[in-house]
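Troubleshooting log. The previous run stalled partway through. Resubmitting the same two chains, unchanged.
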Amino acid sequence: MVGIVAFGGYVPRLRLQRAAAAKANAWLAPGLMAKAKGERAMANWDEDAITMAVEAARDALGPGDDRAHINACILATTTAPFADRLNAGIVAAALTLEPNAGASDITGTQRAGVTALSTALGVVKGEPKANVLVCAADKRRARAASTAELDNGDAAAAFVIGGKDTLADWIGGAVTTADFVDHFRGAEEEFDYAWEERWIRDEGFAKLVPPTIERALKSAKAKPEDVAAFILPATFRGVADSVAKKLKIKPEAVRDNLAAKVGEAGCAHALVMLAHALETAKAGDLIVVAQFGQGCEANVFRVTDKIDAFRPVRGISGWLEDRKEESNYLKFLVFNGLVEWDKGMRAEKDNKTALTTLYRNNDMILGLVGGRCTETGVVQFPRTRISVNPNNPTVDTQEPYKFAEREAEVLTWSADYLTFAMSPPNHYGMIVFDGGGRIFMDITDVEPGDVDSGTPVRMSFRVKETDEKRGFTRYFWKAVPDRRRIAAAGAKQAAE
Amino acid sequence: MPAGIKDKVAVIGMGCSKFGERWDAGPEELMVEAYLEAMKDARIEPTQLDAAWFSTHIDEIGTGKGGTPASLALRLPNIAVTRVENFCASGSEAFRGAVYAVAAGAADIALAIGVEKLKDTGYGGLPVANPGTLAPQTMPNGSAPGNFAQLASAYRAKHGVSKDDLKRAIAHVSVKSHANGSKNPKAHLRNVVTEETVMNAPMIAEPLGLFDCCGVSDGAAAAIVTTPEIAKAMGHSDLVTVKAMQLSVSNGLESQHNSWDGSYFHTARIAAKKAYKEAGVENPRKEISMMEVHDCFSITELVTMEDLFISEEGKGWKDVLDGFYDADGGVPCQIDGGLKCFGHPIGASGLRMLYEMYLQLKGRAAERQLKSPKLGMTHNLGGSPSTNVCSVAIVGLQGV
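Second attempt completed without errors. Output:
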């Protein structure tokens, strides 16, 4: 059968407290206080749809770095950093997928996540031996003091669709396409323009979604009352419940849309909810995942007994636990480019990227691939013709060596208040890797006091800089405190 | 090891501009100030110069590229002018070029001149450097203090020194340099500061506060060198000669190989060993009379005391707190105020260090004159702890 063979997700660590944002804007938009509850996931300044997709993919693919089994990579997003440069190609490069793996972007609608899933299923139906990686990620910008600002959340999910050892078999699906414009964002526009909520609810969700799901269930030869998990993202209260009621899906099957913890992650959200649902799914469970956007698209899965043997590295639940409350609404505005602030003269440096240099060093920069000497075993970054080994600088002996999934720790560090930083102080230092090698690199997702010599870190693919003059985003890897290893070490110490 | 250049070259003239925020002067005027003082000291005419080496680091501001800026500013008589650049050790490189030309017999008299005009950027601190096309795609968006602050974290971890003890030791480094700089009319910063002021200053890059960082200054310095024989024939006496000049350059070991622990300068140790051998110094703690080291940051000076084998490894911070490097200590260090207070116009700094050694050896250091110094050492470092160039030079009275 064709279906899901792996799943994972990612939720950024920062969680904007809605009360803080609503209070800051209440003088201007008192109605926002009705939404002053819970928190929304807030990408760090150096995270975007691509970086979150990479994290989710790593969560699904596991700690190993051999990804030769992945034949294609699909990225669903409506907030791609590039309008013309293959965004999925950057994800593929970061994951060090084989060069003969396909890559494509799916975009343009809020149902793009489920469409990407359907597309991958279609590929595997044609080629049962293929494994297609589906990533969905969105970092939706909204105007300050808008309701969307509070409703949205930044997150990603990833799935591997294959034909062997499926955790959930695909058993049916359906689609409805209608040019129903609940909102739109013109090609040159920064923000969405949305129509009245009541119309979207009554003419959109209520009329376009139920028939689609009915057809999907029919094609799956499944009954609505047997649905164990019903996934339908919607920011309006009770929409999924009323659709379920109309379809005779049990109320308890309606999945929590994570509004209180994440917010709605755009076209990624149905997949975020699906990854979350699969964490607790049992063999035999019937899952319906549907997404609204210029119609509706739905897929139906039956969970298999392989589900118990699979765990994502952290999963949505794991990322939800790794959280830092953020009550500084101004920080959110700065991170999202919603306020003109004085960056100082140091920020004036030209961040033009030499594309020739980037391509020549593509696996080094995007894949964090260094070298290992086949004669001495010495590991180094970057890979060079002459080895760094002080006693035996061998020539032309290095094979590619991947660093991204290796455990590492801080050797030296500083927290720099002088240099330009989007989130000062800028932490950086010499990071040493288990198995050898070291890289002098940025450290992110930290506050003063989090870092010391010996702090365990993991690698995270992040925005290095943006070239505002030319609209180019530069990516590299950064170190992030490995809070799981830190907690485990703390627990061990306490036990001793 | 080669025979070296001990006593083959003599310094017959030196000059140094006033360092500081020289809003009144461009790099050309700064060079003229240092050059005229050196020429007067050497008692020569421009036509007697055979060649010149000119150092400046940041050419995006200041002089621009090439050897022409020095030749034009000083109206040199169409002689060879080579522009050298080796990060913050550029000044020592200009001196090395001139010294080697004389030692080789290619020039009878050579000029070394270094300059940096840093205060034309519009902001405090060093200008943002241009690191090429690959480095900015991976290297952290950092600053000089952030790079050198890395030493502190590694030094603490390696030697088990508490945060407070190390902060106090590096504070003493700066307190000492301010005390010395207050006696130097050419110094950029001439205020005396207390340990409390240093410890409580605003944080620049953990654990370095404002007073742990050297001045960002405009300035120029120059040296004129010849052979001891020519110097004597010209009537110069009590000659100051070059005893050793060594330069060690990182090859990636520190930044790419896990054998380096981040707490010291690999290159400094190599350059120091070679320099002591070239100069015939066997016990530097006893034989070196005084030093000017590259105290770009207080922590740099502290670990350098160990890298130059004056303090034992892991004990440098105690020597610092004991006052061993104070003006009245065992080996006075930064007697002119150092980079910290004399200032750090990058391309001039190596020559400025030699200028103070020269003045001290000649007995011309006025209020800060040490008692009969015989050997002076300069340590001029460029780059960052993990990738750098390190120059160590020893000068002394001829025959010592």
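Takeaways: The interface with chain A takes residues 121-123, 125, 128, 133-134, 136-143, 145-147, 149-154, 156-157, 202-206, 208, 251-253, 255-259, 261-262, 385-386 of chain B (CB under 8 Å). Residues 199 and 389 of chain B are 30 Å apart (CA to CA).
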